[in-house]
């Protein structure tokens, strides 16, 4: 974890982004080619299939006998991230992790990424180096190769677009459309932490803006803040499924909250589902933060976002193989389409999943 010392967080962010910093090399002084030289200096390659990385008109990848899986995500300053509390290094890491997560959600192995950035003159060479430090750490963690991209200027703000490329045997690919009635709905890890981390950071930003001398109250909140600033893609599960000799019948990564991801699987698979609130995996720290903000933790699980865990379905007969895996929670079942999507609350009430009446709290945080 390279999370900063949180109490000095906002001050440090201000220094990195401000013009007062002693060491600041303007992008116009090094030019586009100078910048590309800088950002490729620490790039390492891990994949045999990468025949040519950065440095030519196009990268060259050895097309294996497997299927190629491709996914792109764009992150826009002010829409998807706020640099007043998102360190550039974390942002670089997150940009790679969220794309790798989409590849993992297909039950595929990520191999290469390309990174395209648009930068305003507010950014210095040192800022771009910070961003690429995070990108390179993520590439090393997930063993993916940064093989190219594009660099251009923007009028204001920062835009990062990442494309991730992966491979899988055709028979191992997990689509959103494969769930069948009777199958078990599973999630990895715990949910809701990233949303509570965002709430905390937003609150502390307001405090900081009204009084820069105030000490951020982020003590004991490292877990949820870390879930927001540095999410991990569950590539480990792709390997675990392989070891168990099972294939999820459907799968999706949880970027927008559990409710909407369940709906995606149900819509694409033409099925219904039932979820049990009491089965939702929530970390202690998330529970505590939700209590501080007077939000029911299940609301955060269902409608928060950015946890990047996996939601998937397995056949009943595969349950025995995975039931002791501490990374997996069994949260419900797939039903016939006509039954719709239902939630059984802790009080044993049955409520339709789409009509919670709590979507009001999900502000326009994405799109
Ligand atoms: P071209 O003019 O052919 O588009 P560029 O000068 O833009 O080439 O890029 C030169 C090389 O640097 C290419 O291999 C390209 O993929 C790579 N590259 C450019 N920008 C980035 C970036 N932001 N991140 C990673 N690689 C990049
Ligand atoms: Mg180019």
Automatic annotation (TrEMBL):
MF term (GO), any: kinase activity
Binding site for Mg(2+) 1: 72-73, 150
Chain positions recorded as Mg(2+) 2 binding sites: 73, 102
Chain positions recorded as Mg(2+) 4 binding sites: 57, 71, 102
Residues reported to bind Mg(2+) 3: 57, 102, 253
Pfam families given in the database record: AIRS (PF00586)
Pathway: Cofactor biosynthesis; thiamine diphosphate biosynthesis; thiamine diphosphate from thiamine phosphate: step 1/1
Reaction equations catalysed: thiamine phosphate + ATP = thiamine diphosphate + ADP
EC identifiers of the protein: 2.7.4.16
Keywords: ATP-binding, Kinase, Magnesium, Metal-binding, Nucleotide-binding, Thiamine biosynthesis, Transferase
Binding site for ATP: 132, 149-150, 176, 255
Record CDD domains: ThiL
Positions of the PurM-like N-terminal domain: 55-167
Residue positions binding substrate: 80, 306, 358
Residues annotated for Mg(2+) 5 binding in this entry: 256
Additional observations: Reaction mechanism of ThiL seems to utilize a direct, inline transfer of the gamma-phosphate of ATP to TMP rather than a phosphorylated enzyme intermediate.
Similarity comment: family membership: Belongs to the thiamine-monophosphate kinase family.
NCBIfam families in alphabetical order: thiL (TIGR01379)
PANTHER family (UniProt xref): THIAMINE-MONOPHOSPHATE KINASE (PTHR30270:SF0)
Protein role: Catalyzes the ATP-dependent phosphorylation of thiamine-monophosphate (TMP) to form thiamine-pyrophosphate (TPP), the active form of vitamin B1.
Protein name: Thiamine-monophosphate kinase
UniProt source species: Algivirga pacifica
Higher taxonomy: Bacteria, Pseudomonadati, Bacteroidota, Cytophagia, Cytophagales
């Amino acid at each position: 974890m390279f999370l900063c010392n949180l109490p000095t967080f906002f001050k440090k962010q201000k220094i990195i982004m401000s013009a007062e910093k002693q060491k600041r090399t303007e992008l116009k002084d090094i030019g586009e080619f100078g910048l590309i030289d800088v950002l490729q200096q620490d790039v390492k390659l891990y994949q045999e299939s990468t025949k040519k990385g950065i440095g030519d008109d196009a990268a060259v990848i050895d097309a294996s006998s497997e299927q190629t899986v491709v996914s792109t995500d764009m992150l826009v300053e002010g829409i998807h991230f706020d640099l007043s509390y998102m360190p550039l290094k974390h942002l670089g890491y997150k940009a790679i992790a969220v794309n790798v997560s989409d590849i993992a959600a297909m039950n595929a192995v990520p191999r290469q990424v390309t990174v395209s950035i648009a930068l305003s003159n507010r950014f210095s060479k040192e800022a771009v180096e910070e961003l690429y430090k995070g990108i390179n750490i993520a590439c090393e963690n997930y063993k993916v190769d940064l093989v190219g991209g594009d660099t251009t200027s923007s009028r204001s703000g920062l835009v990062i677009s990442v494309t991730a490329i992966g491979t899988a045997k055709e028979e191992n690919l997990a689509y959103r459309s494969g769930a069948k009635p009777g199958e078990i709905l599973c999630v990895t890890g715990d949910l809701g932490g990233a949303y509570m981390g965002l709430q905390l950071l937003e609150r502390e930003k307001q405090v900081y803006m009204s009084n820069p001398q105030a000490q951020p109250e982020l003590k004991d909140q490292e877990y949820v803040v870390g879930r927001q600033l540095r999410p991990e893609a569950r590539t480990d599960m792709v390997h675990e499924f392989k070891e168990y000799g099972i294939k999820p019948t459907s799968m999706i990564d949880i970027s927008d909250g559990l409710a909407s991801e369940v709906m995606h699987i149900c819509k694409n698979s033409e099925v219904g589902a039932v979820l049990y609130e009491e089965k939702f995996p929530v970390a202690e720290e998330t529970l505590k933060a939700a209590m501080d903000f007077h939000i029911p933790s299940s609301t955060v699980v269902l409608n928060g976002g950015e946890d990047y865990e996996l939601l998937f379905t397995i056949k009943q007969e595969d349950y025995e193989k995975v039931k002791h895996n501490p990374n997996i929670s069994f949260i419900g079942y797939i039903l016939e389409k006509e039954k719709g999507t239902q939630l059984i609350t802790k009080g044993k009430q049955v409520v339709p999943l789409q009509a919670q009446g709590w979507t009001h709290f999900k502000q326009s945080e994405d799109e």
